[in-house]
Amino acid sequence: MSDHTIKATGRSVEGKGASRRLRHAASIPAIVYGGKAAPQPIQLDHEQVWLANKHEWFYSSILNLDIDGKVEPVLLRDMQRHPYKQLIMHLDFQRVDAKQAIKVAVPLHFLNVEQSPAGKASDVVVTHELNEVNISCLPKDLPEFIEIDLAGLTLGQTVHLSELTLPKGVEIPELKLGKEHDVAVVVARQGRVEVEETAEAEGATEAEAAAAAPAEVPAAKVEKDEE
Question: pLDDT by residue (tens digit) across 135-155?
Fold first, then answer.
């Protein structure tokens, strides 16, 4: 479990007007819910949260939420952003019980792609079908990310969810739903074939257009017919 602390202050006034005043004062209205305690409205410093939200751990780690000196573990569950301003409008945090499993989407880190046979080939395209994966584990076992070593990736190879190396105590609930849920994570395709197919398709289109166009009649022929 990571050790990232976010400071917050309790608030007693709620409503759109109160939230608007908080934002004008460079604060973010937020709520903490879950567990045995009642939901608690809080406010956070916008600058601190804005800096934190640039890191992966802010979205996938257990956060130590310090509310007026009382610290409790939470997960970020929702973030509302302004449609065009660099402004966080509202945050939802969920309390974490150390004895209960949690479900979290954690980022994937792809290692050694450039050193792999597929990565070294100029005509191979390596595609990341997923950039994060939903896992289930106890809070103490939650990883900030999952690494995928692609040093042996070859042309035509596909890495599926079931092939990921998971930390101890971590599982992927989706894999329990059947083989059809064992989706691709990484695919190494032949890039040159796609280019050739595109060129052939364009050539066929041009040929069809030329065949459909009316043939030009020589000027001399036209004059003769008119006579």
Answer: 999 999 999 999 999 999 999
